[in-house]
Amino acid sequence: MKNTTNGQPLYYQLLDFLKNQIENEMVAHDKLPSEREIEKRFGVSRTTVRLALQELESDGYVYRRHGKGTFVSELSNQTAALAGVYSFTEQMKKIGRKPNTQILAFEQVEADKRIAESLQISLGETAYKIKRLRLADDEPLMVETSYLPIKPFLSLKKEQLEQKPLYDVFSEDFEQKIRLADEEFYASIATGEDAEVLRIRPDSPVLHLIRLTYNKKNEVIEYTLSVARADQFHYKVRHIRNE
């Protein structure tokens, strides 16, 4: 392998080659060649090989088994991105998975300090609490707990949430058009309750997401706390430098 191809460093050449092999010539759980075999075949350093394999793992293309090697992940073509997507339903359809949502709770609650500050409402004011389990191909992926201010959604019923996605309810039933959503996340481990709902082992890695959704008037219409299985999602973001 040459030092550059079209200006690409060795690391990127190797990464692109391996991704192409995985996507077009391999299937889930196929074993990749060892680091030593890749090093000899492509004439690159062990460091370059390890960096490429680490990125493949972080992107969901492969998984590793200590003492056994590196294998193609069944998620390589199905891992969902968290960035730039507001609709779970649309994202699952996009990657060829069948989405489903189970409503675990629908109730009115008094806003505590956290909820009130997030929704920009008064402390103790009533808000909707909606807890949902998000599934793909009948496999639990995420638990979402959403809080909505009452005033924009006075006639909201559980049946509406069972019939169509929440953001379709916003736009079609209440004329609430989304302008933007701010989202942050952090890694953690699953609590006993979340692990049970998600059908994973306690202390499994999960991603916590916090989302604030704004309408065209720049009003917060949704505050959502989500717990997502770390083995089913990856985070991708593009940084663009303006010269």
Summarize the structure.
With 243 residues, the chain is an alpha+beta fold. It has helices spanning 10-25, 35-42, 46-58, 88-94, 113-119, 158-163, 166-174, 192-198, and strands at 62-65, 69-72, 80-81, 99-110, 126-136, 139-149, 178-189, 205-215, 220-229, 233-234.
Structure report:
There is one protein chain. The chain has 243 residues and is an alpha+beta fold. It has eight helices and ten strands. It has a six-stranded antiparallel beta sheet. It has a two-stranded antiparallel ribbon with strand order 1-2. A two-stranded parallel ribbon has the order 3-10. Strand 1 (62-65) and strand 2 form a beta hairpin. Helix 1 packs across helix 3 and helix 2 packs across helix 3 (46-58). The chain is elongated and about 65 Å long. 23% of the residues are buried. Mean pLDDT is 84; it is low at 2-7 and 238-243.
Strand content: 25-35%
- Please report the distance between the alpha carbons of the first and last residues: 33 Å
pLDDT averaged over residues:
84
* Quaternary assembly: single chain
